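Continued from yesterday's entry.
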Amino acid sequence: ANMMNHNEDVCVTFDTFPSHEINIDGDWNKISLDVAIGGCFGETISALTMESTFDNIIDEYIHSISMDEVRHSALAWTTIKWMIDNKQDGMNMDVSDRKWWERQIKNRKYNAGSKQREIYNDIIAAIVDKLWLDV
């Protein structure tokens, strides 16, 4: 498409935007394990354990940090879902195996009491179930 600037008699031509393709040549298994353990488990549990008990201005800061943890967790889960959906046939990626998640949930150690640990595991398991709804 051509555009003419009538004030300066300059012709500007717009062409099609060049297409780009992202080629990730890293170790998808290692990347996905780091995201799953640090992001999916770590950030989710951090967000869940942020409890404010000060009833003052510190609560606002704790709430802000907690919301950051929620966003980090959501990004990690979204990344894992994308990696599972886009992995190539024959590619080894532990996190694409639902049993890997089940083992992680069963063996995960938290600094929490047994009831709280059960709640964390239930939440993580529910998110994992969501990953496989459309697989």
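--- second protein ---
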Amino acid sequence: TTLCMQVWALSQGLMNGISSKFSAVPIRGTHTAGGQTDSGITIAQAIIALQHGRAIPCMRKVLINAVCCFGMVLGGFLAGRTHKKWGIMTALIPAGALAFSATLLPKLIAPPTSPRKARSSQAALVPPACSKEKEEEEAKRIK
């Protein structure tokens, strides 16, 4: 069954890669491997860009995907360790972390600025290589 699961995972990755390369669909056909497919495509584009002496594409999606994957692995490991001791109450830990990150964390990390200044400073925080327009231009140029 392990070989069967590996072949299935490969087929899902191929389906995502083909659908993202040959269509204008912004989402992937399979949601579980979509982030990894996006990361793989971006890493491949970066390697090709480096070989040709061009600027590498924005690696923001790759970093976010890596953090999410690490969080899922760590969460699964910790859940397995703590469930034996605390049972169903273990679910309160990620629920509390989610509540904190959705309510208090944005207020703690937000810069103390007026709404007008916030809009202009937000645009300044996005590096030119990671702007949406730059990504779209790069995607058109690669096609």
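Residues 60-86 form the longest helix (27 residues). The chain has six helices and no strands. Will compare against the first tomorrow.
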